[in-house]
Amino acid sequence: MEKHVAVVGSGNMGSCISKICALNARSSTEFCNEVRIWVHEELIGEEKLSDIINTRHENVKYLAGTRLPENAIAVTDLAELGSWADILIFVLPQQFLPQVLAGLKGHTRPGACAVSLIKGVFAGQEEEPMPKGLSLLTDLIRSNLGMECAVLMGANLAPEIAKEVYCEATLGCRDPTRAAQLKRLFQTPYFRISIIENEFSVEICGALKSIVATGAGFCDALGFGDNTKAAVIRLGFMEILRYVQRFYGSAGVTKRTLMQSCGIGDIISSCYNTKDVKWAATHDGSGPLGMHDLVTTCYGGRNRKLGEAMVLTGKPLRQLEKEMLDGQRLQGPLIAAEVHRALQEEGQLQRFPLMVAVHLICSGQMKPRDFIEQLREHPEHM
């Protein structure tokens, strides 16, 4: 029986994945020819975005210039989509996930499965404290929908995927049969997939790398060169490995996972972005090179960019999040806070100076200029 594929989210990455899935479905008897994309409806001028996608076959707002296959169909009824789909692919900003899951709850097919492309952890509402322990988004999907959830992560910038520039991703899926099926759905000659059975390890890498990317942003703002940034990336990589081995050793996170696209590949793509728009001379966020343009210039590197902005502007984190991310809570500082709490409880702060420094700077307890000083006596150098 053909599997019905639905992409939940129509941003630039959601549009990219819709294109890939629609092209693969069109040439396969395994999947239904029609791939549906859930669109949070909005007006572009006087036209609905869903109508534009279905008539022009282009997401003119989030992925302009990329033609979508005609069998990629935009829909707006979330409950109807859930009742139709066998494979639900979640590709949307993490702060919208609880609301979307509420709309899907009770409207899913028996035997349906999910795939998450969302990097990060569940942060709750703005006024709520971070829940104890890293609350992964796949856990939220599983608990709300009662279905298994695989993970697809890697060093994947949507504009490059849209241009069919070669890249790779890591698929975390514990069911080998389902993993093989999902690989057939996602893989193309330019988008190559590696499979790891441990879903958790793929997702935790995608979360922890945001701390390192924030630190890389500090380096850029302080004027350090590529040598320093390379050192920060390497030390961050080693701290991630040490952290997951200490706190999640029983979960099976290995060096092999960290060497995948979801690990070292994602860290590098998050810390470097040669396509970034440069700051205006005043760094006050005004004019065409202001903060909104800086964040929307490229899909990747938001943690790096905000880390850079904190140092250049001197503004508080929450103010920058409101100005740059429309109020969305950035993952790097959130995860750094939880990691710091766990390390403090275990008496391990001295063994993770990079992660600790990122938290202290983001929370205003340390001056950014002291960032590198914290790394000079790193345990890796002892």
UniProtKB/TrEMBL annotation:
Residues 5-177 form the Glycerol-3-phosphate dehydrogenase NAD-dependent N-terminal domain. The keyword Plastid does not apply. One of its GO terms (molecular function) is NAD binding. The active site is at 209 (proton acceptor). It catalyses: sn-glycerol 3-phosphate + NAD(+) = dihydroxyacetone phosphate + NADH + H(+). Substrate binds at residues 119, 302-303. Its EC number is 1.1.1.8. It comes from the Eukaryota. It is an enzyme of class 1 (oxidoreductase). One of its GO terms (biological process) is carbohydrate metabolic process. Keywords: NAD, Oxidoreductase. Residues 201-276, 288-373 form the Glycerol-3-phosphate dehydrogenase NAD-dependent C-terminal domain. GO terms for cellular component: cytosol. NAD(+) binds at residues 9-14, 96, 158, 302, 331. Belongs to the NAD-dependent glycerol-3-phosphate dehydrogenase family. This is Glycerol-3-phosphate dehydrogenase [NAD(+)].
